[in-house]
Amino acid sequence: MNGFQLLVIVIVIYLWNRFVVPFFMAYIIDNRLKSIAHYSSLNKSMYEWARPRKQLLIKAVQGFYWLGLLMIITVNLLSEKP
Amino acid sequence: MEIIDWLLLSSTLAFIVLYGVYKTRGAQTSEEYIKGGDARWWTVGLSVMATQASAITFLSTPGQAYTDGLEFVQFYFGLPIAIIIICVTFIPIYHKLKVYTAYEFLEKRFDLKTRSLAAILFLIQRGLAAGITIYAPAIILSAVLDWELKYLNIIIGVLVIIYTVSGGTKAVNVTQKQQMIVIMAGMITAFVLIVTQLPDNVTFDNALTMAGSADKMKILDFDFSLDDRYNVWSALFGATFLMLSYFGTDQSQVQRYLSGKSVKQMRIGLLFNGLLKVPMQFFILMVGVMVFVFYQFNNTPLNFNPAAEKAVLESEYATEYQELQKQHYSILAEKQAMQRDYAKKLNGEFIAPEDKLERRLEFFRINEEYNREAARQLIKKADDGIETNDKDFVFIHFILNHLPKGLIGLLLAVILSAAMSSTASELNALSSTTAVDIYKRFKHSPEKDDDHYVRMSKWFTLMWGIIAIGFASVVSLFDNLIQLVNIIGSLFYGTILGIFLVAFYFKKVKGRAIFIAALISEAIVIACYCVDEFVPGVSTLPFLWLNPLGALLTVGIALGLQGKSSDPEHIFN
């Protein structure tokens, strides 16, 4: 993997993490779309647990993608045995 | 379909086939034909992705989102975990042993019978799946376009056979890059067009809120229920085992990354896939959700399968069905008016009492669904053999009725390209396994040179292509096509994965113990599925759980049966 390819991947992951992840995570966690009264008690309590921790959870998902990138870079840097 | 659609469709497909043949022309050694040469990471990554993304993905997944929302994306949560395990454990060993197929490794680790058992289990399940991969888009396209099903099966099969026989693994890899470009370009175009065709006052944000009010935006389901196929727990446990088995032991995937130039290229290609798969699947489901929002403002047929509607309208139940249609369109008219008010409310242009609109919309949706179910019952009465579940027809109905000229051809090219990419991988893997694990292993003689094995591999590809077309011509439609493929996989994957897990992690287990364990656990898995499916009132395990069951049973029984054994450490050193 050369520097240009790496740069493209970094930019894509940055844009994904910057715009898409927070936007959709907010929808999923807030679940403002429908009253959670319909949900089972376990689902309801999970959503209620998640709401005050929304920012932390968004960071966790963003972290997952940065971690993926880090793994790709690490594999790329590992020297190949002949 | 207009001339421009035909032109776009036929030129795209012809280009892919000719490109595959052209890029792999000339003599090839058996290593080049079966392993595919030195692919770089992006070729490996795209090829792995294109193999998994079949036509079913693009026809069935938006339909799944249309009816059940985004919850299907949970199925892919186990994929990154599985990919990491494969990168760390499986790839270095496959590469070190220089195997052509995953099952070759099993003979080096255990014995010939275990290798043959795993290869035969693979040939059975992948042989069936190859037929479904051809049949799935063919049945849908034949129903909506009124094309002859048997000719469509043959056209898809023959196009794939041409370049797969001619160029082997390399042809599959190079065409899959083009196919992924066509697929992604088509899906992005479709998504943009759906959003732009929504009413003026429905922004993307409003569209999501509307989808959410119909419970289509619920991704995570934490309820532990064995009756529910998709929840967080089945995704993290069941799907991880399924993905581990699919990517680690299924030759159609293993062959894709074995074509990598080095361990590094293979690993980066797979990690790239692990990182992109969830967003890609999420995007395809979002297309389905946007189609749902689009149809909140536009009329839908009572049943999306035109063949089903035709059958009932030509039967004695025609009057009853027409009555249901009348009710259906009256419900839709009221629901659409209310959705317009809801859009105004979301823009602050209309004041409605708290939740009143949402509750009334819910009421209309329940009525609509009730009507649709009544229609399905009537169709069943009119023709018991016809498919009443119309999930798989939703997206193609949208494509044909609401996309502009030219784009219909592009989207049909997407569906057929996807069908070709996954079928090509399957035929290629079936042929390699037959050539390497069965033919070369049992019929090897010094007089047979490399050219002979290349020739035989080509014959095996042709043979499996004909079998797949034949199976596609007799298979009948199931609950949901994407589930059928996963169900067939889940019946065999657990046991195969169990064999590989023992091979990698339990070095003292010998061939005899694992062979008996695999036979017993496969029998138990099939029995569980049959009881669940065919014994009324008895429920055992949903199909995703068959993967961990098969794997854990194989590992457990093998460990139980194993006494002291000779140490096969030499291959790991």
Walkthrough of the structure:
The complex is a heterodimer of chains A (82) and B (573). By secondary structure, chain A is mainly alpha-helical. Chain A has one domain (3-30, 40-77). Helix content of chain A is 76%, strand content 0%. Chain A has three helices and no strands. Chain A has helices at 3-30, 41-50, 54-77. In chain A, helix 1 (3-30) runs antiparallel to helix 3. Chain A is elongated, with a radius of gyration of 18 Å. The mean pLDDT of chain A is 79. Chain B is built from 21 helices and no strands. Chain B has helices at 3-23, 30-35, 41-52, 55-68, 79-97, 102-109, 112-145, 149-196, 204-213, 232-249, 251-258, 263-294, 306-313, 318-346, 356-382, 394-402, 407-442, 450-474, 481-505, 511-534, 543-561. With 573 residues, chain B is mainly α. Chains A and B meet through helix 1, helix 2 and helix 3 of A and helix 5, helix 9 and helix 12 of B.
Rg estimate of chain A, integer Å: 18 Å
Shape type of chain B? globular
- What is the CATH class of the largest domain in chain B? Mainly Alpha
The H-and-E topology of chain A, N to C, reads as HHH
Helix share, percent of chain A: over 70%
Oligomer: heterodimer
Number of helices, counting only DSSP H or I runs of 4 residues or more of chain A: 3
Strand tally of chain A: 0
User: Quick one: how many beta strands of chain B?
Assistant: 0
Question: What topology does this entry show?
Answer:
The complex is a heterodimer of chains A (82) and B (573).
Chain A: H1 3-30, H2 41-50, H3 54-77
Helix pairs in contact in A: 1-3
Chain B: H1 3-23, H2 30-35, H3 41-52, H4 55-68, H5 79-97, H6 102-109, H7 112-145, H8 149-196, H9 204-213, H10 232-249, H11 251-258, H12 263-294, H13 306-313, H14 318-346, H15 356-382, H16 394-402, H17 407-442, H18 450-474, H19 481-505, H20 511-534, H21 543-561
